[in-house]
Amino acid sequence: MRVLVTGATGFVGGHLVPALLDAGHEVVALVRDASRYDAPEGVEVVEGDLLDRERLEGVFEGIEAAYYLVHSMRTGGDFAERDRLAARNFVDAARGSSLRRVVYLGGLGETGDVLSAHLASRREVETVLAESEDFELTTLRAAVIVGDGSASFRMIRELVAKLPVMVAPRWVRNECQPIAVADVVAYLVGVLDVPGTAGGTYEIGGPEVLTYGEMLRRTGRVMGREPRIVPVPVLTPTLSAYWVDLVTDVPRSIAHPLIAGLKNPVVADDDAIRELVAVDLTPFDEAVERALAAER
């Protein structure tokens, strides 16, 4: 199958492209600047920008399926508006093309007004893509993805590395279902071979539900420096974000929306995907070990 990958230079896209090649697909990577992308052998690279509709002319020619992995939070500012525009441009550019399947990686979290700005934006992009009548959308929703290059995991790792004792807000007691990047990629590749997943929305998660505090402690245990965590009720998500700014090197444009999202429990309540795509899920500690080994 001829497959387009948007966000090929990103964390998940960087793992997905080789996996699609291994699965026998013909891969086309959409990037803004081809000179800055070290494409794996066999990948066709096309230049385009989802924020510029005119630069998408002809991108979908001959494309049968596409992965939507774009998120503009890294550039700061009004990332929700940019993500909304990018999704609409994608839908417009695909109209009348050969594209029939789109796979989107979104975020877990209950619907409603309580979603953080980051998770609400992820859900809005999902809605924009789903409204298209030109292709069928498969949505996978994940929480924290553990792997080398993950902003969420980098934040956890740096906190553990630098703080033997953490005074943390109440959100450290909220539950999360982290998943290894290898398992996310396995689901992303797998749904393409299962026609029954077209038009469906699926929640994906690892084999364990942990609190954020447990994730910090167990990451520290793997690193050989398990931290002591002291939850306090007066530390708000906003104050926590500034605290993370001081302690980690994660860009503010990424750290602040991620911290704001920690108020939302993110657990996969629906395991329907397990009946459709078989993935041998990676235990959390093993996922951490792999991520740290990749960094080294």
- Rg to the nearest angstrom? 19 Å
Q: What is the succession of H and E elements? A: EHEEEHEHEEHEEEHEEHEHHHH
Main pleated-sheet profile = 7 strands, parallel
Shape: globular
Strand content: 15-25%
Number of helices: 10
Oligomer: single chain
Tell me about this structure.
With 296 residues, the protein is α/β, with parallel strands linked by helices. The chain has helices at 11-22, 79-94, 117-130, 151-162, 181-192, 212-223, 237-247, 252-261, 273-276, 284-295, and strands spanning 2-6, 26-31, 44-47, 65-68, 101-107, 136-142, 145-146, 165-168, 175-176, 179-180, 201-203, 210-211, 228-231. The protein contains ten helices and 13 strands. Helix 2 packs parallel to helix 3 (117-130), helix 6 (212-223) crosses helix 10 and helix 7 (237-247) runs antiparallel to helix 8 (252-261). The longest helix is centred in the first third of the chain and has 16 residues, at 79-94. The protein is globular. The relative contact order is 0.15. The model has no long low-confidence stretch (mean pLDDT 87).
